[in-house]
Amino acid sequence: xxxxxxxxxxxxRVTISSSKISTTNIPFNxxxxxxxxxYNQEGNIVYEYNPFHNLRIMSDxxxxxxxxxxxxxxxxxxxxxxxxxxxxxxxxxxxxxxxILIDDINSPKLINSRFTCLxxxxxxxxxxxxxxxxNIYRDDSIMFDLDTSLYKRITKIPVVKFVGxxxxxxxxxxxxxxxxxxxxxxxxxxDFVAESGTVCCYIxxxxxxxxxxxxxxxxxxxKLIKLSLENLDxxxxxxxxxxxxxxxxQDGQLVTTAHKIERDFVIKSTTxxxxxxxxxxxxxxxxxxxxxxxxxxxxxxxxxxxxxxxxLGNISRPEIPYKELKDLALRFxxxxxxxxxxxxxxxxxxxxxxxxxxYNPWNIYYRLGY
Length: 370
Prior knowledge:
The chain is mostly beta strands. About 5% of the residues lie in helices and about 40% in strands. The chain has 4 helices and 24 strands. A hairpin with a 6-residue loop joins strand 7 and strand 8 (about 110).
């Protein structure tokens, strides 16, 4: 705890009257005291003891202000004497330590120490500056559960919007389907949180239907694809993009491949604009990676580490209410709905509305059913 005393010896009063400005000194003698807590960013780990200092207060209390960092002293972990806690420690990439907690009643949790040990028995606090520091945990029942969860989850369902296909890129011809995950600054990804519809990428211009052709295999369409994601979880910093592309050769045999774009798309507020030019580096992945059945564990009784991998044993999976979902599905009644026209292309291949029916990838995406 530090205390700073400031002595003020006087102040000045300014009076404006008409076009004249006059000043008057007001003498006084007053001492102000400001108290604040100072936590060392570096120090000697042998002679100092500090608990984890990585809990952020989300609302004002009698003792703390909103946004203040305090010691990790909370009952939000919901530990119980009847369920012993199993603890595993693993090193993190920045020299800090991840502590993994399981107790067979709560979901597996990961808490970072937020400091790293240096040479000569010294330490340093590790800061991770982004939207939400991944080693700082919010003192809120919902946010705390998400921040400390061993596997990444989201609180919002993203909305994918197709903006259009424009000239100027280098995407290969074919039908594309895009899949999105969210990532924090450490590179930890969620499962797939959103999927686009089919984006058709061909050779030619929508305003000139006679120039359009599908292309063969890996032929360059000279086009780029624009998408937009909205209602994103602001606890994450980036969007990662995966996609499948279906094309065909001269024999007409369909070929589907899967890829990952090696580029992070930055989340701004709750939206992310994605322009896929075709020039980005991509990694080929298997189709099974797109359709993977992801691991979920609501509780676990045992854990161990081997060759930098964590294994959980005797797990319980979340119960999915299949019966209720099946009953709910029977209550949906589909009907034909047509709000806008897709345009009309006449015998001269001209469309005065500018929509160009299903020559337009936008109409294929939004107004074509399969």
